[in-house]
Amino acid sequence: MKQLTELHALVSKAVDTLTFPAYPADLYEPISYILALGGKRLRPCLLLMACDLFGGEVESAIEPALAIEVFHNFTLMHDDIMDKAPLRRGKVTVHEKWNANVAILSGDAMMVEANKFMMKVDDAILRRVMNVFNETATGVCEGQQIDMSFEQRNNVQIDEYLDMIRLKTAVLLGGTLKIGAIIGGATAADAQLLYSFGVNLGIAFQLQDDILDVYGDPEKFGKQVGGDILSNKKTYLLIKALELATGDQATELNSWLELKQFDAIEKVTAVTGIYDHLNIRQYAEEAMQTYAEMAFNALDQINLSEDRRQYLRQFADSLLVREY
Fold it and tell me: How far apart are CA 239 and CA 28, in angstroms?
């Protein structure tokens, strides 16, 4: 089994050697630009890991892994346009550096490039792999649309939120692992179990992210703590608080949500205080643990040696046990 650091090095080398046509520059330069911003490149590493777990040749999975990395960055490029985000990984976003039309078209070209990379798998498994990839891509788009629709609604329910993060975030983890498993020669049953592992782990990871946004140490978390509160983002914590709050607490919480001008520190402190009184963090942690257990239950059923299952357990723990 190759270590995650080895897989990351393989992915980074492959991404760094990618070249695109010089003309038209406004179409291809933004693709090189966003890919050069780096990031954890977790998803392509997962594809290589899944292939390796089942005894496949990791080198045969490099181009499908690139497909996942290019696809993921395509979604980020378009997400940044929709969110009007000025920065991505500390650098100017594509739509700010060029313009929105360039970012839209370059993103479209990235989706095409991702398909071209994925098409390079062996013909014997091509249809299976492309079915998983296309279903995954559709799910991500559905999740993003549902998330945007939540911004216009005041009555989002917990089950709707969980379904949204399943589509927007988790199915890409699951689909990536499943593709890697197929390339590695896994049975259909084992590939599906690994998919379930990835999806449930992805949901647990997003719930942990929701918790850390409120309760994390900003130096360790790497993001502004309380950012979701300031933007009224409908996370598990806010939805649960709206469900449970009554009387004065409900009035206070809704007043903070309605205010257009406010002191940032005061708002974060007040809303966090409401969460504390309602034990919202405990509810979120229990939900996160539920999905983590579902992931590990799927893992336990995969036909792998115990040392290989333990490798995946340790990987999952590294995602879920993060410092606050």
Answer: 41
Angle between helices 264-277 and 280-300 (to 10 degrees): 70
Residue type, 168: K
Summarised one tens digit per residue, pLDDT across range 263-315 is 999 999 999 999 999 999 999 999 999 999 999 999 999 999 999 999 999 98
Angular region, 127: left φ>0, alpha ψ -120 to 50, beta rest = alpha
Total-model pTM: 0.94
Burial class (CB in 10 A: 0-12, 13-18, 19+), 142: middle
141: burial class by Cβ within 10 Å (0-12, 13-18, 19+)?
A: middle
Return left, alpha or beta for 227; rule: phi > 0 is left, psi -120 to 50 is alpha, else beta: alpha
- Long-range CB contacts (within 8 A, 24+) of 17-23: 18/66, 20/113
Give the three-state DSSP class for 173. Answer: helix
* Dihedral pair phi/psi, residue 305, rounded to 5°: -65, 155
Distance CA 70, CA 85 (A): 19
Counted residue by residue, the chain has a size of 324
Are 52 and 184 spatial neighbours (Cβ–Cβ below 8 Å)?
yes
Q: Angle 264-277/247-258 helices, nearest 10 degrees?
A: 150
